[in-house]
Amino acid sequence: MATLKEELSNRIPNLRREARDLIDGAGSTVLSQVTLSQVFGGMRGVTGLLCDTSLVEPDKGLIVRGIPIGKLAARKPEEVFYLLLTGRLPVARELEALQTELHERSSIPNYIWDLLFALPADSHPMTMFSAAILALQRESVFSRRYAQGMHKDEYWEAALEDSLALLAKLPAIAAGIYRIHTGQRTLRSSRPELDWSADYAQMLGLPDPSGEFANLLRLYLTLHCDHEGGNVSAFTCHTVGSALSSPILAVSAGMNGLAGPLHGLANQECLHFVLEIQHEFGGTPTDQQLGDFIRARLKEGSVIPGYGHAVLRVTDPRFTALHAFGQRVCAEDAVFKIVDRLYALTPAILQQQGRAKDPWPNVDAISGSLLYHFGLEQFDYYTVLFGVSRAMGMCAQLILNRALGTPIMRPRSITSEQLKEAVAARQRVA
Question: Which of 156, 235, 305, 351 supports an S-S bond with 402, CB 3.0-4.6 Å?
Answer without folding.
Answer: 156
